Write the structure tokens for this entry.
Amino acid sequence: MSRAVLCAVVLALLAPAGARADDLDNAFARLRGTWVLIEQGGKKPKREFKLSVNKANEYRMTGTSGESSDIAMLAGVEGSIRLDPGRNPPHIDLVGPKRTLRGLYKLEGERLTFLLGPDGKRPTSFAQGDGTFHIFQREEEKK
């Protein structure tokens, strides 16, 4: 095999990995900030719950009663996030000290939607709705 062909093969193999890393970095960058829960399981929450995502790709549930949100009760008040934006639909895992919540996510403008599966199982699609929906709105910056 000539050097030119070998170099072309190596570059072809490395390019997708770099693109995937860029996609992942962009996905996390879009997720960072504070999100206010506006709907959970088809209902408006009775208390204010916030999801904060920091630069280390960690989450924290806050608000007037963040520790009693579904996410905090099942996974933990704090934890890390794993994303796979290359899947269709994109996958998210909320990894807390209690358990890992597996789900799907979509980000449309200033609205973030999770579909988290029951018993550690990942839902198959948003259309099937085989899990619990959590819909967040990006918190407006204070002036």
